[in-house]
Amino acid sequence: xxxxxxxxxxxxxxxxxxxxxxxxxxxxxxxxxxxxxxxxxxxxxxxxxxxxxxxxxxxxxxxxxxxxxxxxxxxxxxxxxxxxxxxxxxxxxxxxxxxxxxxxxxxxxxxxxxxxxxxxxxxxxxxxxxxxxxxxxxxxxxxxxxxxxxxxxxxxxxxxxxxxxxxxxxxxxxxxxxxxxxxxxxxxxxxxxxxxxxxxxxxxxxxxxxxxxxxxxxxxxxxxxxxxxxxxxxxxxxxxxxxxxxxxxxxxxxxxxxxxxxxxxxxxxxxxxxxxxxxxxxxxxxxxxxxxxxxxxxxxxxxxxxxxxxxxxxxxxxxxxxxxxxxxxxxxxxxxxxxxxxxxx
Length: 345
Hints:
Distance between the termini: 34 Å
Order of helices and strands: EHHEHEHEHEHEHEEHHEEHE
Number of helices: 10
Largest sheet: 7 strands, mixed
Structural class: alpha/beta
């Protein structure tokens, strides 16, 4: 049976050269990058070459890239590290701003900060229309941090990062900007420094790299607190011996993805249009939840009257692999198109 894998927003198949880079590192470059002997220096050189590859892809300096265990840790480190540092210095108003459509690694981190006394402002994006007026009002309240994802991971909405940065610059220049860029990095044009963002989270396994490794871009000079105390391997911000085989695989995935990024985006746009038109032709009642101005790599649709789990099982039995949205007891045909649960899409 031929497989049709359509779940790349969840994870991607590693490129063959990525697998080769991981095996090569495990077999021949297994030293500890913190060790001072030849094996350690050899490992350190590979670590810094990998950091350089990620930095070049983002258009930033290598010293601004911190390797983590993945996107979840990067989001946690960015949010908690920034607000804890600000709180310790007595800076800011203990206010945070986020959207109602963030990934769980952001929403749950924000919820935890709320329990610690931080005041949260949630911005809506019904149907993908970001509440820029609400963002302006939130900026006027002088928050410590604004965290808005670049691409919504279930619906493919693209949020207006440039406009958000412009509002911050005008009304609250001291506010830090963070974006969960995990569904944008390596797929769409994305350079955080040019956009005006000080923090950005990345993940390897969304772009043909291995699971268990990611990175955080943190602008040089930015004060952050660590969330993992220990040996301080990643320039005191993130502790733990670096997972060098995974990092080498991440760097190779970056090289491959960026060598063909524009062509892949064009191909994805064609496939998105083909699938959307085919669904509308075959199922006149279909609701396309995504937007044509969103990421072409993600398409979300609803079939009124169809049960998610049954449809998923039927497609899987035929070798077609997709994902459903997060489970919700109110996920019924009667739900109004474009409306979502308060805390998560």
